[in-house]
């Protein structure tokens, strides 16, 4: 876990733990370090967490989810030492990491049922997969094999299936030309959340592809940081 804190002597007003992308098979906590560093400069305790990767310590997505849950638990402890209770804390991530954050917040740990009460008060997900059943049967079979999901059980890991009243507020940021997780997925998820009476914002970046939010020529990094910080400060810092 890479921990980024506001300027020395400044009390954080909110916090977030984020999980990197990489299809559960690559990547590291370094991937979202630039995001966390910038969020910390806005008064937010920001943590970028790693997790075991499949075939590198993890045998299936279940190991990755277990690590994400443990990271959230550890983050809650770190935040408490800095005066932040769970009402001011969020989780999130990019791509597969965003999916992990959603699963940890929305699905019970022991069985495929909605989580009775999430550990975090909000979720920020960058280009996440939210509807595993949106893929063709062939694509879904590949996803199940790559993620170590038993055949026919992808629905148990699909966040849109676990939307219920009382889900935490969410900010989804997504490119309209995402070739990995279509914008239609994100729109359906937002609509399902709204129908359940939940707070869910979808920010669409016109023409942006998957992984649009990193520093560099894509040009969306600053906008993503502004939106993320604004959402966290608005939803959490005023509690």
Structure characterization notes:
The chain is α/β, with parallel strands linked by helices and 239 residues long. The protein has six helices and nine strands, in the order E-E-H-E-E-E-H-E-H-E-H-E-H-E-H. The chain has helices at residues 33-40, 61-81, 96-106, 137-147, 183-195, 221-235; strands at residues 2-4, 14-19, 44-49, 53-54, 57-58, 89-94, 122-126, 170-175, 200-205. Strand 2, helix 1 and strand 3 (44-49) form a beta-alpha-beta unit. Helix 2 (61-81) packs across helix 3 (96-106). The mean pLDDT is 95.
Helix-strand blueprint:
Elements: E1 2-4, E2 14-19, H1 33-40, E3 44-49, E4 53-54, E5 57-58, H2 61-81, E6 89-94, H3 96-106, E7 122-126, H4 137-147, E8 170-175, H5 183-195, E9 200-205, H6 221-235
Parallel strand pairs: 2-3, 2-6, 4-5, 6-7, 7-8, 8-9
Antiparallel strand pairs: 1-3
């Amino acid at each position: 876990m890479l921990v980024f804190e506001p300027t020395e002597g400044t009390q954080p007003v909110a916090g977030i733990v984020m999980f990197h992308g990489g299809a559960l098979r690559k990547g590291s906590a370094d991937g979202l370090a630039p995001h966390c560093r910038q969020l910390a400069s806005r008064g937010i305790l920001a943590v970028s967490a790693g997790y075991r990767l499949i075939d590198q310590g993890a045998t299936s997505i279940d190991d990755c989810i277990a690590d994400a849950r443990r990271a959230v638990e550890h983050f809650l402890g770190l935040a408490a030492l800095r005066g932040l209770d769970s009402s001011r804390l969020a989780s999130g991530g990019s791509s597969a990491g965003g999916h992990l954050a959603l699963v940890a917040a929305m699905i019970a740990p022991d069985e495929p049922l909605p989580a009775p009460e999430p550990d975090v008060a909000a979720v920020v997900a960058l280009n996440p997969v939210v509807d595993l059943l949106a893929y063709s049967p062939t694509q879904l079979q590949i996803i199940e094999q790559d993620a170590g999901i038993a055949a026919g059980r992808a629905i148990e890991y699909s966040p849109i299936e676990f939307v219920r009243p009382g889900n935490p507020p969410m900010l989804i940021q997504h490119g309209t030309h995402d070739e990995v997780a279509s914008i239609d997925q994100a729109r359906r998820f937002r609509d399902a959340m709204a129908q359940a009476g939940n707070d869910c914002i979808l920010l669409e970046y016109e023409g942006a592809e998957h992984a649009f939010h990193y520093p560099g020529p894509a040009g969306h990094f600053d906008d993503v940081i502004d939106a993320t910080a604004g959402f966290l400060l608005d939803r959490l810092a005023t509690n």
